[in-house]
Amino acid sequence: KQAEENLLRSPICCIMGHVDAGKTKLLDFVRGTNVQEGEAGFITQQIGATYFPAENIRERTKELKADAKLKVPGLCDIAILVVDITDGLKPQTIESLKLLKMRNTEFIIALNKVDRLYGWKTCRNAPIVKAMKQQSKDVQNEFNMKLRQIVTQFMEQGLNTELYYKNREMGETFNMVPTSAISGEGIPDLLLLLVQWTQKTMVEKLTFNNKVQCTVLEVKVIEGHGTTIDVVLVNGVIHEGDQIGPIVTTIRALLTPHPMKELRVKGTYLHHKEIKAAQGIKITAQGLEHAIAGTGLYVVGIDDDLEDVKEAAMEDMKSVMSRIDKSGEGVYVQASTLGSLEAFLEYLKSLDVCIPVSGIGIGPVHKKDVMKASVMLEKKKEYGTILAFDVKVTPEARELAAELGVKIFIDEVIYRLFDQFKAYICNLKE
Ligand code: GDP
Question: Does ligand 1 have an atom closer than 6 angstroms to the CB of 116?
Fold first, then answer.
């Protein structure tokens, strides 16, 4: 059994949805941590990573099924789309849906905040069917009404959805799990469904492969470690001392948080000599300040040519570059990671938005970005603008922008950034 388990890597799961739908809280609940309150009103747009041991999932789903057979040792290559059941679909839910469709990612819908239905009787950590049976007729009616509304909203987006325990067409009809991230109803169902669904449909994808596949999530300075990178190792094994690229350097330390803890939250780390996929890892090494979030990390083998590694890394950038407007006219767009930049460009290109882009940058807005954006001022004043998605602006850049007349809009939410820009254009026209 152990040997068989080792053949599969942990699936990787991502959580998406509108602001305030409960993404952070849901993860906090599963982990038993409190990232959400630590953030005090901030919006989590960064990606985090937590490793969930199989033992923990087995324990928490035992009420649903005596000893769920876990072939997959953690969570997944699947997404959870979180919808606030009292609110229904919102702009970012639809944005998330578009991304999921674009990448052909399997997903499960969590209808979160069921405990907010008026008169809800708490059944801590109970499977959802059991919890639902405890509710009054009024609560059940309200639940059914909200459910019907949401099913209709998804249908308007071209999606068939159904409560998972009533779903007879798994694969064609998307599963919904009612949950509460506060009192835990439906969480066992969500965990079990994730694990079962990934093992049933993704065995091939999850079969452990020796070829290193690794993505940089975040580049950041940590006291005592210098610039570090948080990565997700999707496949393969990496070792302390491995030479990595495209920034050519040698891994000084491989660190992970303790199981069930969040990689992004400060704390003590475990040191490793080697790590096998899938895992979220913090890497320390020289020169990491040049790494770009969202791009691949490559391990240079003894037989590998360094130039090939560099070329593979360039491929990551190409798909993004190809989205820039060929006319050379458009706004300047800045985002924190390659992934968020891609998502943002996709949004700006969509028909109902349709804003041309002339230049892009990753990371904080610097003077050089302002200089580049200012070129547009003579061509089309409104394009002399930087749309800064979830990034900081350096004081020097801000000063220069004021001097040159470059507008900088900042927001952590894509559609709000667009709204700001739209309002600005309308103002100019008047
Ligand atoms: P995120 O923006 O999607 O990460 O949402 P958060 O996890 O930060 O949650 C937004 C707010 O909704 C916070 O005040 C949470 O405490 C609250 N919340 C999240 N999930 C639930 C839930 O299941 N029930 C209730 N009553 N409140 C929730």
Answer: yes
| Residue type at 153 in one-letter notation | Q
CB 401 within 8 A of CB 386: yes
Could you tell me the distance, in angstroms and rounded to a whole number, from the CA of residue 42 to the centre of ligand 1?
Answer: 12
Whether 36 is in the pocket of ligand 1, judged by its Cβ within 6 Å, is: yes
Helix (H) / strand (E) element for 233: namely strand 226-235
91-102 and 414-429 helices, crossing angle to 10° = 110
Which atom of ligand 1 is the closest one to the Cα of 44? Answer: 4
- Confidence band (pLDDT; 50, 70, 90) for 222? confident
Q: Note the pLDDT tens digit of each residue in 234-287.
A: 889 999 999 997 888 999 999 987 776 666 666 678 899 999 988 888 999 999
Which is nearest to 271 in space by CA: 212, 211, 225, 217? Answer: 225
Q: What is the chain's alpha carbon radius of gyration, rounded to the nearest angstrom?
A: 23
Please name every residue paired with 282 in a beta bridge, in sequence order, or none if there are none.
Answer: 230, 255
ipTM: 0.99
Number of alpha carbons in the 13 Å side-chain half-sphere of residue 356: 13
For the Cβ of 170 lying below 6 angstroms from any atom of ligand 1, the answer is no
Ligand 1 center to residue 172 CA distance, Å?
29
Q: Report the alpha-carbon distance of residue 177 to residue 188 in Å, rounded.
A: 10
CA distance 80 to 278: 18
Question: What percent of the chain lies above the pLDDT cut of 70?
Answer: 84
| Ligand 1 atom having least distance to the Cα of 19 | 2
Map out the domains of the chain with their CATH numbers.
2-206 (3.40.50.300), 213-317 (2.40.30.10), 323-429 (3.40.50.10050)
What is the torsion angle, in degrees rounded to the nearest 10, for the CA atoms of residue 365, residue 17, residue 20 and residue 279?
A: -70
CA–CA dist 21, 31 (Å, integer)? 18
